[in-house]
Write a structure and sequence with these properties.
This protein is α+β, with helices and mostly antiparallel strands and 171 residues long. The protein has 5 helices and 6 strands; from the N terminus they run E-H-H-H-E-E-E-H-E-E-H. The two termini are 21 Å apart.
Amino acid sequence: MNPQNYTKTDPQITQMNADGYLGKNNLRQSAKSADKRDAETYAIIGAAMAVHNELGNGFLEAVYQEALEREFQMQGIPYEREKRLPVFYKGQQLDTFYQADFVCFGSVIVEIKALQQISGTEEAQVLNYLKASELNRALLINFGQKSLQHKRLVFNLRESAPSADKTGGAE
């Protein structure tokens, strides 16, 4: 097959920093996006901070989940708790589903943990949930440390540049 006759779609997974900006080499960062932060994930992180400030660390995950639900209610953050999300394989829905701790604003997966440290395993789990559920934003929030930990993850499907397809990525 001639590589010039097709356009390849490559998944791109990006971890955003606390301000919602992507890395300095990522094409999504621009003057337009420099003033725009993700208000929805900011609101969710703010609610989680309120819970952590009140409870501290040391409780089981279920305690934080219930407290976070109440904080979402108090702050008017739309959410669904323990929402079942379909999982897709090659475009077809599987019988198996993923149950998110929360889906807020109809589009942000919120996975909470109460661990001493978030590892690559938890991050990989959330990234797989994003890929499988066809949603594109998630927060991994850990209540298990003295300070609240959170990671904002974004999954984008983008078409690769035609020049990269022609040259195999080399110039």
